[in-house]
Amino acid sequence: MVALVTYMHWLSKDVPIGVELPGRGLVSISRPRSPSHINGEIVYKTRCAICHGEDGKGHKHENGEGYMFPPL
């Protein structure tokens, strides 16, 4: 929890209060994909596997201490 709060604080550094910033919020999806295992596999392989690995087990730091990208 401390790490999450610290990260949020860092993200908001030098951001004016009460101002809408570009890129904030969620982007509308014009054509949502139908939920399916095939679509999920495509999304994982194209968006997630680069960090979390093909098997979802994440990537450890080179020294073996902790994860650079955590397992799912």
Q: Which helices and strands appear, and what pairs or packs with what?
A:
Layout: H1 2-11, H2 37-52, E1 59-60, E2 67-69
Antiparallel strand pairs: 1-2
Q: Could you say which overall geometry the principal axes of the C-alpha atoms support?
A: flat
- Mean pLDDT across the residues is 86
Structural class: mainly alpha
C-alpha end-to-end distance:
18 Å
Spatial ordering of strands, largest sheet: 1-2
Strand content: 5-15%
Q: Summarize the main sheet.
A: 2 strands, antiparallel
- List low-pLDDT spans: none
SSE ordering: HHEE
What's the Cα radius of gyration? 17 Å
Helical residues, percent = 25-40%
In a few lines, what is going on in this structure?
The protein is mainly alpha-helical. 36% of the residues lie in helices and 7% in strands.
Q: Could you explain how this protein is built, in words?
A:
The protein has 72 residues and is mostly helical. It has a domain at 36-72. The chain has two helices and two strands, in the order ααββ. The protein has helices at residues 2-11, 37-52; strands spanning 59-60, 67-69. It has a two-stranded antiparallel ribbon with strand order 1-2. A hairpin with a 6-residue loop joins β1 (59-60) and β2 (67-69). The two termini are 18 Å apart. The mean pLDDT is 86.
Annotation keywords:
single chain; two-stranded antiparallel ribbon; 72 residues; flat; mainly alpha
